[in-house]
């Protein structure tokens, strides 16, 4: 029974089974009964009033009244598509995950791209990092790689996330975006400098979704068949080439075509111009972690490619548009906590905080049975002892509801056990604030001096100067001091552009 429901869900999702009303070619109520008349409600006389017995009206209106679900607390505006992942290089010496088991192996994927700070109706081209999340439907469950399009993050402790996001949203009194809130938070937490430079470079206004790289940012642990592990960062590079918009063009599109990126992706796929990305890993052994000059679990740092080279893994291709946006994109639930045997969390504090936040918000946003929504369902049957709750669609029939039991023959997977070897941690329990105790400026300096060419530096200064100028004079001075720690040249260029300090 359970398997049959799941099969139907998958087939409906894939568009293989038409919905009931398509089969019958007439309009129905939500409970499937043919509607008698659709363009007028039931009234006493021509001028009304309405009758409570108009169940067709009530069915229609009551559903409409409940159409909106909460938008994502971050990454509210987005678009997505489906496709596949193809393994092109053998990484089984690092990772035993089934999806990487063979060169040539293909796994179905779903991808959602998003802006971070804007609301569900906001413009696609606003300056912001973009989200780039991938769900892999593997034969050992769903693996979500939830990344962004710049390689580093604002903070290195998840407890700062809610406050930091509040500064990117609206002021509590005016309901306006507020430059003082933003520059106050940025300048009080210097670890944000690296990401701020990326976001204010033209990487903060990518030309749609197809021309951006993706970065898992958080560090994971890969386990191979012998139980040996390495730490890992994931990167997926666009095969279309990086392409960004200038500030002027991005601002123009905010007004003239606010859904620019969603439209571009949809049209490209519809015309058979399938975008693709190459997936890479970088790895670090325990010994390399011990010897690293920086904390490899700090999300404000990238792992330099010359020391930790990119190892190709495979190719991601998007070749299928959604057939129903709400069902397949709005309701998709991505979370770094969704891992498969062979992929584990590292001690990365941001990752550890994320492991809690995503499923927590999804239980609120979509309801506790959100994993039964077809786009979130794994390909294989779910066997566990979770039951009931609102909207339970696959309630696992009459199988036992408790563990251990003497009725079912289910056991844990030997393979999953082998790929979860014990590991040690030690240390003094304390609230360690690393805002000023770790190096916050060496990698931002490298970004400014070596990763940008002169044209890109000019645009960075221009973009930053405009944003800082919107803040009050004391915050402008603080921002200048912050960027002075990156480079005297950057500070003096900004100083000459910001007049009010
Ligand atoms: C402490 C750090 C973070 C917290 C607490 C956090 C929390 C969240 C939450 C609550 C959501 C909404 C999920 C939903 O409603 O389905 C979300 C979405 C998202 N986050 Fe984070 N996040 C953090 C850091 C990051 C980082 C470092 C990345 C990139 C590597 C990232 C990428 C994303 C993406 C791409 C989405 C949208 C997923 C989708 O398309 O549905 N986040 N985050």
UniProtKB/TrEMBL annotation:
PROSITE patterns annotated for this entry? CATALASE_1, CATALASE_2, CATALASE_3
Q: Which residues bind heme?
A: 358
Instruction: Note one Pfam family from the annotation.
Output: Catalase-rel
Q: Which N-terminal stretch is annotated as signal sequence?
A: 1-21
Q: Does the keyword Protease apply?
A: no
Annotated region described as Disordered, given as residue ranges: 386-407
What domain of life does the UniProt record list for this protein's source?
A: Eukaryota
Residue limits of the Catalase core domain?
Answer: 28-411
Q: Write down the required cofactor(s).
A: heme
Name any Gene Ontology BP term.
hydrogen peroxide catabolic process
Q: Among the entry's GO cellular component annotations, what is one? A: peroxisome
Q: Which UniProt keywords apply?
A: Heme, Hydrogen peroxide, Iron, Metal-binding, Oxidoreductase, Peroxidase, Signal
Q: Which reaction does it catalyse?
A: 2 H2O2 = O2 + 2 H2O
Listed PANTHER family:
CATALASE
Protein name, UniProt field: Catalase
What is the protein's species of origin?
Agrilus planipennis
